[in-house]
Amino acid sequence: MTPHRRSLVRRLVATSAIWILIALVAVALALTTLFRQSVLRALDDRLTAVVANIVATSEPAADGAVLPSRPPPDPRYERIFSGRYWQINRLDGESVGPVAGNSRSVWDEPIPVRPRVERRLMNNFGQPITYNAHGPDRQPLRVVGQAIELPGEGGRILVLAAEDRRPADAEVQRFAFISIGIFLVFGIVLAAGVILQVRIGLSPVFRMRDAVADVREGRSQRVEGDYPVELQPLGDELNSLLNHSREVVERARTHVGNLAHALKTPIAVLMNETSGDDSESARLVRRQTETMSRQVDHHLRRARAAAHAKAIGAQCSVGDVVDDITRTLGKIYARQTKTITAEGHKGLLFRGERQDLEEMVGNLADNACKWAAREVRICSGTETDRTFFILVEDDGPGMSRDQREQALQRGVRLDEEVSGTGLGLSIVVDLARVYGGELELGHSKMGGLAAKLILPGRI
């Protein structure tokens, strides 16, 4: 299962979006709270003015009632349960007594005064206070009350003015919804701006990524481009690393060449010394010397291929290699009336050294030619986005499943009458694995063997 890879763009956009969301929500809440306080302040000021008018004009009547000589002129105070009320209560010591007068709108459901409100009124005698309550018809009310003492024999009274709070709450709610809509649109615009900013800000990183990919795919030798001061040192370090990689490969090639000369010369001397001697010991030395020579060639080839595979940017045309091998083998096997055809390899590039691809395809094609009756066919194409295949088929006798498994083992020969060392297919397997590829053997539609070589590459 492929591990989840975190994206720098997603991280920046998500962080900015979360911060924008928190900021916008905080601002929306703050504005809604300020607007609510403003609406309630206006309501309290209106009710305070009503209380002041009633306090200024309240007079005791002969029947014990207390009524204002000039009641508020708003007709809603005369309409039952209209939402606007005033009320006057007698004060009995430290508690609120019976109703001494009220507006017609109160009808028979007086404005309640809770004990906690009574204590506040007594503690702030002569000063208006505000509180919330439920009044006539269970309406939520905003109430302003003021406890005063009338001159003369009027006594102490409590004047209350109340108004239905629902219109004010609806206005605050409407403002909140409008604010949410505005801030939502504003947030979307900001998020789009953040995405654009991140894309523009990280575009040099994307360009450097593409430049590194060009080097990896062999389209360029260096990380080229003009980058910001924060990225230019990274580009310089990558170019230094590329130079160092090439130097390491060159040194590996030199060491491989030196080792080849150092080992092949003594082996050649041993073979020459025993070439004219038919004794048992001489034949044994020749056999072991030939084995040593094959093993040296094999391991030197693997070492060279490993060095090439680690080189960044190495590539070659698959079509050119296949065409050259096809022409060469066509001439070699022309006398045996064997035909070799190639198709489907146009545009394919092998991410590795040409010499190694020639070694692999040449071994497979030569093996097919040795066993074919009349025809060998080589075709190629893309396997995945990053790999391609080369399929070599013949119309020979083919192999069983067990034979195919044995053929991939180093030095195993299924027929001693056919010339060869027995290392051909195993060399192909080893080289393919060095490059991260593989060799598959199967049954060909032509009747013989199908050898499918899968290697890294691109179109």
What is the CA-based Rg, rounded? 49 Å
Q: In the CATH hierarchy, what is the superfamily of the largest domain?
A: Histidine kinase-like ATPase, C-terminal domain
Percent strand equals: 15-25%
Binned, the helix content reads 40-55%
Mean pLDDT: 83
What class, by secondary structure content? alpha+beta
Order of helices and strands: HEEEEHEEEHHHEHEEHEEHHEE
The coarse silhouette is rod-shaped
Number of helices: 9
In the CATH classification, which architecture of the largest domain applies? 2-Layer Sandwich
Based on DSSP secondary structure assignment, what is the total number of beta strands? 14
> Any idea of the CATH class of the largest domain?
Alpha Beta
Low-confidence stretches: 411-422
